[in-house]
Every structure is written in C-alpha cells, then in structure tokens.
Amino acid sequence: MSVFMDLNVNYTADTSRLQSLIETAAHLGFSTVAINYVFEPTVKKKQEIPAPTAISKVMDPLPIVQGRSRPIRVLNRLTIVMSDASHFRPTAVEYRCFDLLAVQPTTEKLFHAACMIYDVDIICISVTEKLPFFFKRAPVNGAIERGLVFEVSYSAAIRDSTRRRYTIANAVCLMETCKGKSVILSSAAEKPLDLRGPYDITNLGLLFGLSDGEAKEAVSSTCRSVVLHAETRKTASGIIYTVKSCTDWPPADCEAPAAKRARPQLTQ
Amino acid sequence: MVRVKSRYLLCEVNVSDRSRLLLLDDRAVAATVKAAVARIHGDYGAALCSIRFSVKYLNAHTGIVFLRFPKNCYRLLWSALPFITCIETRGQKISCFLNCLHVGGTMRTCQKFLIRYNTQQLHRMLPKCKNEEEKQQVQKEILNCSLTGRNKEAFEDESESEEDEEEEEE
User: Fold this and answer.
1) Chain A residues touching residue B78 (CB < 8 angstroms)
2) Is the whole-model pTM more than 0.90?
3) Angle at B30 between CA B28 and CA B35, to 5 degrees
4) What is the pLDDT of residues A3-33, one digit of tens each?
5) A202 touches chain B (CB under 8 A)
6) What ipTM does this complex have?
7) Residue B28 to residue B133: CA distance in whole angstroms
8) How far is CA B136 from CA A13, A15, B140, B159, in A?
9) Which residues of A touch B95 (CB under 8 A)?
10) Which residues on B lie below 8 Å from A64 (Cβ)?
C-alpha cells in the first residue's frame, strides 16, 4: 500500500470547515495533508505573511487514515504568488514556521529564477489563465535536478468549464517539457466536497498526459520526496537538524526494553 | 472461448449530510454519470456510455454503487467520474462526490472487497461507540462477517443499520 498525500488544502478561517476537510481527507485515504496559506503581495500596501495556526487548536485528536492505524499528518505550507522579484525574500524569518514553501511565478523570468535559484520546494502552475510563457527545457531540467516539483491543482477544473480548459492546457504543456517526472497533483480544496480519492486523481493524471505509473507516482512517491526535501531544507546540508527539546520522555525505569518504549514525535 | 468482459467499479458516494443519501436511486445516478461523461468527453464519450454501462447495485444507506463499464474503454469513462459534483433526483440536488474504491472484473470480486471494506469500517467505528450496548452489537457484527452462508443483501443491511446508528450517535 503506498502513501497518498494531498499537499494543497486551502486554509479557511472557519474551523469547522477545516475540520471536516481533514476528516474527509482521512476517510479517503490520504496519510498526509498540507494546509496552504496563500500570500499574494501587492505593490500598494505592505502585507504581512500570515502565521500558521497550530493544528492542535483546530482538531485534536487527528482522525485515523482509512486503511492504516496512524492518524493523519498535517503540515503547513505557504504559497507566494509572485509577480515581481522582490516578493520572495529568501531569508525572511516568517518562512521558518511553515513546513513547505511554494511559489507561483507569473512571468518567464520569475519562472527561470524560481527553478534555478530560489530555495523553495514546489512551483505551482496556475490554473486560472492560459500561461503567457512557454516552458523551456533548461530551467525545467534544472529544477528537476535540484529536487523541485511542479504542482497542478485540479479543483478549479471540477468547478468550472473554462478553468478546466486552462488546467488541461497548462498541464499538457508542462508534461511535454518535463516528460512526466517531478509532478504532483493536488486539490486546492476549499470545501470537503472538492476533494477526490487517490485512485480518481491517478486517473485524472491520464487526462493531463501522464502515463499510468507516472500518474500514481504523482500522488504518492513524488509527494513524499517533496516532504523530505522540505525537511532537509531546514537543516544545514541535510545533516543537522534542530529539534524542540521534549520534556516528556518516559521514565528510565519503565518495564519495556529501550527499543520498545514509546518515543515522543521528533519532527513537530 | 470468446467472452464479453466488463469492469465493475465500486464507488462510494460521499455527501456532507447523510440524510440526503436516502433519496438516491439508480436511475438518477446513471443519468448523472452519462451527463458527466458527455460533458467531459463529448459525443464520443456519450456513445461509449451507451454500450454496456449500467448501475448494477446501489445501497442508499451506505452510499455504495457498483457501476459496470466495458473493458476496453473503462479508463476513459472513469476519468469523467471526478467531475461529478451533484446528483439530481426527484427535483432535488444532492451535492456529493464519487470516490472509487475498487475495480474488479466480476461482481463477485467486488462483493468480496466490499465485505472486507465494510468490516474495516466497523472496526473504525468501534472506538467511537458511546455505550456498551452499541459496542457489543458492533463486535457481534464483526465476528459474523463471512462470505459463506449469507447472501450479500442480508449482511450489508445489518451492517448498515449499525453504521446508521453510529452516525446518528456521532
């Protein structure tokens, strides 16, 4: 059984809707979900990057994933819609509270810069308009080598007919250039009814031009590699990581041998 | 020996409020699927849909549907299913989505999968039981699960009434 992940679930301030979204995702079989905070800086006024709300405030305990015995894992993700190079500041402090970073470039130069230079995990392909630029092999291959992935989201396609055309057009264009590698498919779900099961999304991948195996990877192993890439981005060359010190280790004189003692979660 | 092969898709209809589920009927679901396929794949899709497509089984209590498609084009027709956003029946719209659980070559394999799936659902419900009596009932049902000696309808009706009670409890 492979691990399915849905790395784009839109954040809503309404906690009950967020709760039902997470429950539906757990019921459908997704073992990891990332709550997406979209940040769109405009030139006019200075905006602040929203801080993520702790998941324990939203829902506790987390629902168990269908078909497994562990609860669903919820990550935080920030998407920056960029129309100018100054929108993304690589050393901003606020980025540290998010587990995943994504960027949505709107011009060719920004796309090139995002693929080659910026320190992000995901590059979003917009679905609301036909892309004004074409994908070139050089930045796309550079991004694949660095471990970045391209994301296509499908819930706009479900809601609206013209968006469906743009989604399919942009996705097919991307697949031609990147040959189906390093792509993830995710919903940009706002309501629980926007989510779809993992096998249905695999089938949607066929519509976008992916082959069978590639489409399944797009929902499972590529997502897993993005999450690992995001974890290593926080470390120093992938070797050291800072962990919050846990104060609740079980007592040293407990019966079970050391290997079987319950350990608190390290990556929180 | 030449044999006509079909693929049976086991889908679950997910709704936001379970009381609306009871309004479902198989002709409504069939009409919705045909409309969705025609919308996405046009006249070609609509034509393919008329070959051997039908709704073989529908359970309004749990929302399980068995759809039958011809084997050579089932992937194309399957790819139109995620675009279904609501099912219209008797003048009422039920907003829902279809989640495909299993693809089988025969009804019997789908039935075996469904029994295993229902057992898993009962297991998931066990920690959520509010009182001892419910717990005993659910445990009894879990122990009763087997393919031999019971026909499909009887088993599923019992487990669904458990599920309905559990859902109402929640």
Assistant:
1) 200, 203
2) no
3) 95
4) 888 888 888 888 888 888 888 888 888 888 8
5) no
6) 0.78
7) 37
8) 40, 34, 6, 13
9) 193
10) 124
